[in-house]
Amino acid sequence: MFISSPLLLACYLLATGSSGGRGTGAGRATNRSNQRGRGNDGRGRRSSGVNKGRKRYNRDGAKKQGPSSNNVSDIRQEELSPLPPLTTPNGHRPIYFSCRHTYENTLIDEIHRYARQQGGSVSAMSPYPGLVRVDDEDGVIPTFYDPVYALQTMTRSVVVSAESIKGIAKEVVNALLGDGNEDDTAIDEMSARHKEAFHKAPKGALTIHSLVHGMCKGQSKPIMQHRAEKIGEEIGKIMKKMYVAARKATSDDDGNTIEPIERWLLQMMLQSPNIAVASLTRCCKFEPHAYWPNYLHPLGLAKVDIEEKMPSSAYRKLMEGGWTKAMRMKFGCNVVSVDRSELDPTLMKDSMVQFHKGDAFSFEPTMVEQDRDCWMISDVIAYPERCTELLDRWCKGNWASHMIVTMKFQGDEPDLDELDKAVQVVKSHNYDCRVKHFFNNKNEVTFMVSERGLERQ
Description:
By secondary structure, the protein is of the alpha/beta class. The protein contains eleven helices and 17 strands. Helix 10 links the parallel strand 14 (374-378) and strand 15. Helix 7 (314-320) packs across helix 8 and helix 10 runs parallel beside helix 11.
């Protein structure tokens, strides 16, 4: 998040609690696994805590010896994480999306809903917690499809296999860019197009993400991570020899890195020690500083670990994508906080924080200045329709240049119809809008709104 001037309007309503913390809220469930009929594995199966085959390999990717490699464990591993078939030149390529684990079915439902709206259908399943695979034989899903519940995409991926680290790296580059294929009939048309465009990319344009499926759950040291990192290093070595985009970015006379005019992302995820899924995409830029796929954060997981005491549970959500302290302490903003309850005592004494006790929905700003960045941030606990009303009111009044607003859902499922309605309301007032379910969101989504064509940072 970038703010060039220190004025912020923060609408932040706590429905319950008297000490600045947020209550659970009446009628809002707190156990999503029980709500949605899913066990801890996120796909409708109750976890028993029994070893289901995920740890048959050590962290370097070598198979462990012992009981875990018997036939029973092999069957469990296959049931839990079916390995994908290898792709062939000019054949079908799967699409992968990462998401907050336990929300796999929600993402799958959203993808199916989109496909139906386009008059088509796709096949979608979750091979691992936090990962969804889509088979789109009819080409219904566009390259830069950006589902609300997806944190990252690996679009039009190849699936390759080799025994060694160097072998997998070579197969990935060959499959993605057609390098090393002497037989013209084996040249993939999509790879040829990527190769032609990638040759024109400037220095520093390429970022490589080395991934393993355990990262989808936020694991700090997942199995096969070391092997994946070594494969990523080999991919980088191969590509630096042939493509300037894989080389270090150009610097100016003062030694500052010159930002490339375009960004490319190569993602490689190990499915097993010998099978890898990979994709290469020229990232699509969402103004002013967001890209899809996200080349900054592997699997779309922003690092928001916080050492100091958090004033509320909303703090981590804002740092990924509560509120008053994040904007005051992290970004040095003047903050106007509207709440039914007083803030943390430290914030109440802060000269850069103005506190207004009251209702966020009826608050009307009077301190907005022209040509200054003014951010409205809301984490109000209310029905989705009220969130739409809040966005409509602030966008219509042009009271803020940027808005970050959470829409909280009631019951078991998100109200995607109301979500779509809110997006259209925002856009009708000449604002751009993107909606995401972040890793730290619960049964809610985050609206990111900015004035259309805004050049300020």
